[in-house]
Here is the input.
Amino acid sequence: FLTGTGGDIISFSGIAAIDVVQSGSNTLFRVGDGIAGNIGFGTGAVLITLANTPFTSADITTNINPSNIPIFQFS
Here is the structure.
């Protein structure tokens, strides 16, 4: 997966909130509840694992399909 301008695009459908969790050199996208800082952060089902790829809030505008953007919470 290539992040940044000109990189890959991820599209979500029917997902209201996503927790973005760094795990070593990987980034996990997990089903979230849209609440920041709660005890259940990062415990939802894994949607995507980006292997050896960091993903930050800056990547949302360039790598997430703008037609359906869930709430993103980052660890």
